[in-house]
Every structure is written in C-alpha cells, then in structure tokens.
C-alpha cells in the first residue's frame, strides 16, 4: 500500500531539518513498515473467529465458550478448538521484552491522567475521522455513530479503567486481561465483516482495523496525551513517557497489535510517527467522518426527561467534552464539522490547569501526594463512568451485525 506525503508537510519537514537539524519523519524502514501494516491483520485471532463466531458454532455459543475459557482457564476446556488454544497460548505468554516495573509505572501515568486521558484520546481519535479507512469500519459497525456513540465510549472507558488498575494487566485471570481479549476478538470480527462489505475498498485501504491503525491508537494513549495534556497542567517527565509507551506496548500485545517492528521506543519516535500519519492523510471520509464526529459530543446532551442536578451534570460533561475537541482537534479539521462551540469547556480546562500543575509539582516533592492524586483521579473517572452506565453492562459483542 502506498502512502503519499502532502507537499505542505514535506516542505515543513525540509525546512525544520535544514534550520534546526531535526527530522520530523520516521526512518525509511519505519515508513515502509507502517505502509505495509495497513494490509496486515491478526492471523491467530482471525482463525479463531472464523471457526467459531463466523462458523458453524455461531456467535452465541462462541461467546459462551470464550467466557468459559476466561473463567476456568483454557486447559480446563477440553472441547476448545485448536484455533482457540493457539490464541490463548500467545495471549497468555508474557513476551521477553516486558518489564513489569515499567508496565506498572505506565499504568500509574494513566491513573494520574484519569478522565482526561479518555477525553483527549477521544478528541484525537475524532480528528482522524477524516480518513475513510478509519471512518468506514466505525460507521458500518455503528459503534461511534448516531445514538450509540456514548455507549461505545463507555465500553472503551471500561477497558481503560480495568487495564490501569495496579498490577491488573499482568495478573492471570484478571478482568483487565479478559476484557482485553474480548476487545481483540471484537476487532477481528468487525474486520472480517467490514472487509467483505461492498463499501470497503481493499485496494485503496488495505484491511479494516489494520496493524498500522491499531498502532495509532497505542500512540493515542501514550505520546499523544503526554504532549497534549501539558496544556492542561499535567507534567509528564521523559521517564514517565517511556513507561507509558512500554505500558501501551504491552496493551498492544494483548489486543493483537504487533509491537515488535515499528513500535516507537522513544517520545520523539512516537511523535514522528504521528506526524507521518498526518502527512499522509487522504481526507476521503466525506459524510461518514462527519457523522462520527458530529455524533459523539452531542451524545452527552441531557435527555429531555432528565431534570435537576442530573441535567446540570450532563450539561457540564457536554461542555467539557466539547472543550476537549476545541483544544485537541486540529483547527482546520474541526472547522469541517458542526460541533458545539466548546468555549465554556475550554475556559474551564485552561482555568484549572494551574491547579493541576501545582499538584503535579507537589507529587514529586511531597511523599504520598502521588498516590492520593492517582486515587482521586481514578475515583472521579469511575464515578463518571458508573453514573453514565447506569444499569447497563458493556457487551464487547463480537457477534454484533453491521448496521447496513
């Protein structure tokens, strides 16, 4: 698959390299691997899904089988097919490169970022909906389109909340690991359905939810917020960025992303890959991208039946999310969509930045502040999630049909 760099980005790269001796593009071999990754999937998980969810077994029985294996262990499921055993063997093997201390340090960064991680990550993701390769799968699956946009975000938030619990992703049998495997299977199921859909152009876009696109989500949980949240007062050191990169690398392993070839090892490498993605955009999503972007923030709007404090609370989060989009979507992309102004939320976000920065300084100087800062951030995030979720449960449904 060929990626074409825009002339504007090329000129900026050349000028910066000439004047500052700084290279904005990744190395040539990384660029080649990133292009090739658009046609690469997840063979082990794809074999399992094809045999079970999309095979004679059917989605309901396959879901029950997966739940059973996650609950009692694959060795205690004698009727598990070989494709499932191969998937679990890879999933349950901790790669040699994993440093448990770095994984935990990276999880701690997520706990400090808290609600802001999800908000800035989603705003950055919305900015990528200019691309049909990203917008078509989401539009077809319906996850972030129309009235279901908030529900899908709550599912993603549940995964974020689980994986950053202390020690969770390296603990056998943890909810974090179970949810990660369900996310992997769901992605593979959607990939297969979208790839067979007449709206998908494989010659132009490669595979839906490709390796390269999954890589971008990992950067959206590491170097992206590390850079962007600085504007909101979060002070993330270089060592913490390295840790959160390592944490996201292991998360990538769990959800089926190949993280051994082009995965960034440094903050600068991560930013270069993000710049390269921006430089090779096609801006071909059209109305599908607009549908996705314009669905999300309004999904926080309080329903007509909501009254009193609950209505004020919903309106607060509506303005807050709109503020994040104003701050973290590229202005020339954001102008192409109909979105709430975001000014009230932006004022709030920037107004509290000095207080966050003060806490960030204190956590390095005063023993115990860091732990309390993490706990408070997670408490607020979980409270918001539980309030919005209500009596519903996240489905992570790999058997869900496409909406058209």
Automatic annotation (TrEMBL):
One matching Pfam family: MPAB_Lcp_cat
GO molecular-function terms, A-Z: oxidoreductase activity
Domain ER-bound oxygenase mpaB/mpaB'/Rubber oxygenase catalytic: 109-341
Designated name of the protein: ER-bound oxygenase mpaB/mpaB'/Rubber oxygenase catalytic domain-containing protein
Domain of life: Bacteria
């Amino acid at each position: 698959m060929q990626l074409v760099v825009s002339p504007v980005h090329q000129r900026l790269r050349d000028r910066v390299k000439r004047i500052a001796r700084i290279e904005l593009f990744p190395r040539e071999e990384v660029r080649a691997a990133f292009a090739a990754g658009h046609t690469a999937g997840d063979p082990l998980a794809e074999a399992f899904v094809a045999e079970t969810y999309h095979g004679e077994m059917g989605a309901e029985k396959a879901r029950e089988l997966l739940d059973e294996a996650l609950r009692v262990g694959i060795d205690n499921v004698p009727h598990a097919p070989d494709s499932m055993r191969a998937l679990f063997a890879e999933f349950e093997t901790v790669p040699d490169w994993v440093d448990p201390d770095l994984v935990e340090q990276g999880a701690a960064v997520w706990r400090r970022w808290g609600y802001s991680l999800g908000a800035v990550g989603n705003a950055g993701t919305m900015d990528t909906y200019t691309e049909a390769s990203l917008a078509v799968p989401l539009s077809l699956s319906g996850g972030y389109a129309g009235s279901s946009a908030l529900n899908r975000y709550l599912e993603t938030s549940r995964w974020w909340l689980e994986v950053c619990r202390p020690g969770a992703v390296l603990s056998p049998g943890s909810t974090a690991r179970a949810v990660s495997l369900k996310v992997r299977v769901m992605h593979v199921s959607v990939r297969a359905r979208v790839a067979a859909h007449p709206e998908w152009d494989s010659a132009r876009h490669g595979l839906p939810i490709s390796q390269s696109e999954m890589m971008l989500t990992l950067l959206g949980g590491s170097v992206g917020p590390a850079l962007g949240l600085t504007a909101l007062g979060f002070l993330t050191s270089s060592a913490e960025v390295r840790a959160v990169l390592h944490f996201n690398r292991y998360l990538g392993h769990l959800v089926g992303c190949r993280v051994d070839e082009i995965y960034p090892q440094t903050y600068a490498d991560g930013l270069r890959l993000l710049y390269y993605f921006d430089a090779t955009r096609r801006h071909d999503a059209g109305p599908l991208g607009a549908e996705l972007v314009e669905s999300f923030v309004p999904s926080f709007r309080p329903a007509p039946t909501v009254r009193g404090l609950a209505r004020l609370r919903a309106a607060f989060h509506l303005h807050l999310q709109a503020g994040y989009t104003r701050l973290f979507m590229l202005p020339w992309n954001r102008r192409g969509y109909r979105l709430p102004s975001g000014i009230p939320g932006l004022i709030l976000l920037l107004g509290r930045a000095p207080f966050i920065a003060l806490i960030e300084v204190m956590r390095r100087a005063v023993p115990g502040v860091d732990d309390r800062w993490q706990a408070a951030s997670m408490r607020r995030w979980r409270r918001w999630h539980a309030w919005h979720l209500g009596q519903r449960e996240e489905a992570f449904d790999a058997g869900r049909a496409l909406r058209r």
